[in-house]
Design goal:
The protein is an alpha/beta fold. The chain contains 10 helices and 8 strands. α4 (140-155) crosses α6 (172-187), α4 packs across α8 (226-237) and α8 (226-237) crosses α9.
Length: 282
């Protein structure tokens, strides 16, 4: 199918943002806004966002990918992922203003873009669904717990580890000190109980936001990624997370061999196909 790629400039809080619209010759009415994780710009690691956009456009999906304020070709100061709600809204607005006959709009994001999307989505009724890859819910406690479970516990049963211990190649004292620090960080209690939503830890805010979004959600999670493991551990241990993942509007696909950015062709093709099959069917 013939696809037209068009550069679009638009404004956000007096700054000039730049994006690329992928417009298929025969659009299906399905549209995907690719929201960028930081610090990145609209191409993505390993050109992932370009590849995804061109693949979806070949299936008749209109796609828009753009740079936040202060990133890539957009003007202004760099924004933290918790501050990009206005950028996302501006991109949604200009996407709709292209008169593409959008019937269903989905937001797609990897890592902290997935978290940014979770904060934004409930505020915009035009958003019909979310595709979230390895959402960012990083805290020191969560990181330590995920590291203990997915690194230390696996490594302790590794033949290679004990060969290094017996041969003297491994600094056992330093390793034990590091392990003790991880345990301490994984199970320490917060100093204060924070009631305000704005002051809640990131995992709580992400879960609260996703729990309030009652439209289709797709999670794509990597098996060899600490960020994904932190999210998996969070939803498995928190009552809100358990309820969320059991909800009828939620789908989850685990790619057990893939890394955080889906860095080879096979993993990117899997993500592309999963995304397409899900957005066309929901």
């Amino acid at each position: 199918m013939k696809v037209n790629e068009k550069i679009i400039s638009f404004s956000c809080e007096e700054e000039l943002l730049v994006g690329i619209l992928h417009q298929p010759e025969k659009p299906t009415g399905v549209a995907v806004l690719i929201v960028v994780g930081g610090p990145q710009y609209r191409i993505g690691s390993h050109r992932q966002f370009v590849i995804l956009a061109r693949f979806l456009a070949q299936q008749g999906v209109s796609v828009f990918r753009f740079d936040y304020r202060g990133m890539g070709d957009s003007s202004g100061f760099v924004q933290d992922f918790e501050q990009v709600g206005p950028d996302i809204k501006a991109a949604v607005d200009v996407f709709y203003n292209q008169h593409l006959g959008i019937k269903k709009l989905f937001l797609w994001g990897l890592c902290d873009a997935a978290s940014a999307i979770s904060f934004y989505a409930s505020e915009d009724k035009r958003v019909e669904g979310l595709v979230l890859l390895n959402p960012w819910v990083r805290t020191e406690k969560g990181e330590n717990r995920a590291f203990l479970k997915n690194y230390y516990l696996k490594r302790i049963f590794s033949r290679g580890l004990w060969q290094k211990v017996l041969s003297g190649e491994l600094n056992l004292r330093a390793s034990l000190v590091s392990l003790a620090q991880k345990f301490k960080g994984a199970f320490k209690k917060p100093l204060v109980e924070e009631a305000s939503e704005e002051l809640l830890p990131l995992p709580d805010r992400v879960l609260n936001s996703l729990s309030g979004f009652n439209k289709p959600l797709l999670f794509i999670l990597s098996g060899r990624d600490l960020t994904a493991q932190e999210f998996i551990q969070l939803v498995a241990s928190d009552a809100r997370g358990k309820k969320l993942m059991r909800s009828d509007n939620v789908s989850r696909i685990d790619l057990s061999d893939s890394d955080h950015t889906f860095s080879n062709d096979a993993w990117r093709e899997q993500v592309n196909t999963i995304t397409w099959e899900w957005v066309k069917d929901v």
